[in-house]
Amino acid sequence: NVPGRLREALEYTLLDGGKRLRPVLCLATAKSIGCNIEKVMPTACAIEYIHTYSLIHDDLPAIDNDDLRRGKPSCHKKFGEDIAILTGDALFAESFNIILKYQKSPPGIKLEVLDEIISAVGATGMVAGQIVDVSSTGKRITKKDLEYMHLNKTSKLISAAIRTSAIICEANHDILNSLSIYGKNIGLVFQIIDDILDITSS
Q1: What does each C-alpha distance from 10 to 2, 3, 44, 67, 79 come to in angstroms?
Q2: Which secondary-structure segment (H or E) carries 69?
């Protein structure tokens, strides 16, 4: 049983709106290659869990120190830093649980999907991009470091949402390569726009 306070925080963060870009791209990829979107739904949900966990942790005072998320108090402002950290941890763990329990794919496919996601979010993925981000706050950085940060912080998870869908739908090598390029580029564009909005929006 999930403790009531944790359940409340999970529902608050998962159901508070947002674009759902990553799971939508996962479903749209399946549809674009003639695959039923229900086939990739568990992985699409798992990726949204990971994205939500990353937002909760990004908002914490030790990182971005954001009081608002999507026009509402961020998780740590609503529930406290301790509950926010644990909520993010729970979402991260449960994302893999969803794939293992509910993704109806052969074991080899599941392993490929997990490998894609772990590579996208771990020490050489999203966390690596976030490290560069927090280390460069208020400093001038090189174009190379900026591209590295954007690629890892945002682009890799977006690309993983697309690639995992193609892997589950058993797309051929050429289609997977084309989708990989698309995923990388849309991720970079998304982060550039997000950075501009951070500076220009009130």
Answers
A1: 10, 11, 17, 17, 11
A2: strand 68-69
- Whether the model clears a pTM of 0.85, i.e. scores above it, the answer is yes
Write the pLDDT tens digit of every residue in 104-161. Answer: 999 999 999 999 999 999 999 999 999 998 898 888 889 899 889 988 988 999 999 9
- Please name which of 30, 28, 29, 26 lies closest in space to residue 45, comparing C-alpha atoms: 26
SS3 150: helix
Q: What CA dihedral angle connects 19, 150, 48 and 62, to 10 degrees?
A: -100
Torsion region of 87: left, alpha or beta (phi above 0 gives left; psi -120 to 50 gives alpha):
alpha
CA atoms of 147 and 155, how far apart (whole Å)? 10
